[in-house]
Amino acid sequence: MAQHQFTVRIRYSECDPMGIAHHASYPVWFEMGRTELCRSAGVAYRDMEELGAFIAVARLEVRYVHPIRYDDEVEICTTLERATRVKAIHAYRVLRAGLVVTTASTTVACVGPDGRPREMPEPLRRAMGVSEA
Amino acid sequence: MAQHQFTVRIRYSECDPMGIAHHASYPVWFEMGRTELCRSAGVAYRDMEELGAFIAVARLEVRYVHPIRYDDEVEICTTLERATRVKAIHAYRVLRAGLVVTTASTTVACVGPDGRPREMPEPLRRAMGVSEA
Amino acid sequence: MAQHQFTVRIRYSECDPMGIAHHASYPVWFEMGRTELCRSAGVAYRDMEELGAFIAVARLEVRYVHPIRYDDEVEICTTLERATRVKAIHAYRVLRAGLVVTTASTTVACVGPDGRPREMPEPLRRAMGVSEA
Amino acid sequence: MAQHQFTVRIRYSECDPMGIAHHASYPVWFEMGRTELCRSAGVAYRDMEELGAFIAVARLEVRYVHPIRYDDEVEICTTLERATRVKAIHAYRVLRAGLVVTTASTTVACVGPDGRPREMPEPLRRAMGVSEA
Fold it and tell me: Where are the alpha helices (DSSP H) in A60-103?
């Protein structure tokens, strides 16, 4: 489950009067990256919510290096950097035509329906390679 | 509870590469209009959700007459047109400097946590002037 | 260029506290449908903007029949209903597992950089099957 | 122009299936904070765009400490931390009922219509207290 890559085409509604993707559009693609990375390891995040486990974003950092435009096709590369029983750190790169246009990082934490920290359900821990020791 | 009016300033992120408010931004302001119309009648919509009553949009119609731009201040006028124990029809007008730039209409229905139609809770019915006959 | 169909997976950020796709998320998919319908006829909408022709939405109507949820895969079917040299009417259906969950319609008009109506550029007219008579 | 504070009420569409404000909603409020901080110093950002000066976000960092919910009223506090002739660093705090729920920081850069770095127009530099030495 180390890494996942998918293509997203920039939507008109994701762009702003500068004609480029608005900076608040990017975290949405990173979230898609986390979901797809999980799925590629056999875990549907939606099922985790039904088990009462929610993934809350605790930290977000983005470096916008080059702008991207409406209708551009970009690659979203998501890497799991580190995971414990309650937290995970992911790194992201956005590439257009092989050029890195954006880098980012998030820390997510597992919380219960009450918003309090809890362990990730076993399938999610396993998907993230967290040892059971 | 017939009518409510509030001012919204167009956000940069609500605008698109044409430099005008994206057409998908408007329904968000209409939803705010419904919320504020309820509040002005003494009902917080948030409390209704805690009673297990959700307001689902069943129909949306918008006529975009004149564009509006980033940083424009516009008035959102919300009118309750008709209400029954389960449904309500609202009309909306967006005005800039006294000129109607957009008109719209929605039908909303009350549903339970399972998504099935249910009666609005009593405070909401009362706020909407639905007779108890 | 009569019709186009594509699949979209519902994003977490497109859903609201009811756990379903927010009603303002749908117009974004319809816009994608129009873009892809054009592309399938050999015209990139992005190129039209570079020719000074912008597509403004003048009317939007949506009927939300059944809710859709985070991570659902739905089909967006876009049909060009009618086109003149300046306007076009499209119809949309959203299907999940073969069931129509939403229907919609838009009227779009071609405008110049100044926001005033203008003829669609020739490639766009041709893509829409508007006769040159 | 050191600091600005305004109140925002969390919109339904800004919240996600967890019932809390989605993490991608926050940068939009920070952008509003920058705009209002400029305005309080006598500069409308919209006018800067008409002078061919655009403010591009180069870096974004957010720490989400406590969640906030639909219909919550929160304070957005924006502080200009440092400014040069081409860049500015802002810090943000989101408070609910006096409690800091989120902190953030951005770096923005002034670019021309071509996306290349340029000096901020004089009114903007003055508003940011950049010395003319």
Answer: none
Which tens digits make up the pLDDT trace of A73-87? 999 999 999 999 999
D65/D68 Cα distance (integer angstroms): 10
Q: Residue type at B23?
A: H
- Domains in chain B: boundaries: 3-122
Task: State the pLDDT at residue C114.
Answer: 87
Task: Select from B9, B12, B45, B54 the residue whose CB has the most chain D CBs within 10 Å, as the one to mutate to test that interface.
Answer: B12
Alpha carbon of D133: minimum distance to chain B alpha carbons (Å): 32
- On whether the CB atoms of residues C109 and C44 are closer than 8 A, the answer is no
CATH number given to B3-122: 3.10.129.10
Of B54, B60, B115, the CB nearest to C23: B60
Nearest to A54 among D18, D57, D59 (CB): D18
Q: Phi and psi (nearest 5°) for A14?
A: -85, -5
Which residues in chain C have Cβ-Cβ distances shorter than 8 Å to D24? 13
- Would you state the pLDDT for residue B109? 97
Nearest chain D residue (CA) to C70: D17
Q: Which CATH class is domain A3-127?
A: alpha beta
A18, D54: Cβ pair inside 8 Å? yes
Contacts of C113 in chain A (CB under 8 A): none
Of B17, B19, B70, which has the smallest distance from its Cβ to A12's Cβ?
B17
The complex's ipTM works out to 0.95
Chains in contact with D, counting 3 or more C-beta pairs less than 8 Å apart as contact: A, B, C
Pairing verdict, β B54-64 and B99-111: antiparallel
Q: What is the pLDDT of residue A52?
A: 93
Rounded to whole angstroms, the Cα distance separating D4 from D80 reads: 9
Cα–Cα distance measured from residue D31 to residue D34, given in angstroms and rounded to the nearest whole number = 5
Higher-pLDDT residue of B2 and A47 is A47
Look at residue C19 and give its three-state secondary structure.
coil
Closest residue in A to D65 (Cα) is A58
Token representation of residue B21: 């408010």
Q: Name the phi and psi angles at D124, rounded to 5.
A: -70, -45
Which residues lie below 8 Å from residue D131, measured CB to CB, with a gap of 6+?
A: none
